[in-house]
Design brief:
Number of helices: 5
Strand content: 5-15%
Largest sheet: 4 strands, mixed
Helix content: 25-40%
Distance between the termini: 91 Å
Radius of gyration: 34 Å
Low-confidence stretches: none
Mean pLDDT: 78
Amino acid sequence: MSGLWRKTLIYLGLVEEPEDHDDLHDHYEPVPAQQVSVPQPEPVPTRPSNVRPLRGAPEPGAAHVRPVPAGGDLRISVVTVREFDDVEQVGARFRNDQPVVIDLRLADTTVARRVLDFVSGMTYAMRGRLTGAGNRTFLLTPDGVELTPEERRRIEDLALRGEA
């Protein structure tokens, strides 16, 4: 019986499958291990990387948080956004590692949404944080800047009173 026909009959369950495979030795001869050669992969040449980090990566275990000194020289900016072009001021100050409070209360809902989308992308790209500070008021904190709880509470109070 031919191999294909026998396999078909076994597959359909019409013929019993042989239990032993002693006939394999009849078809195949074992190859001595000395004659088997496995091609070895060629080593991949390494080139020096031309990618350099934009910022110095912090060493593992090193603190990368810079507290805001109370009454120090790091000031928090308040930007009142009325139109989308005002977001440029936010970006310029945030890029200089300055915490920024964004007041969107005077902006149209569509403009406020666009500004918030832009600012959230900017803070994500620069590894900052965006937190709500009040009614349509948000606080952007750059990477490595940590506000004291008193400073954060003061910002939220100003935002609630509409002075931020």
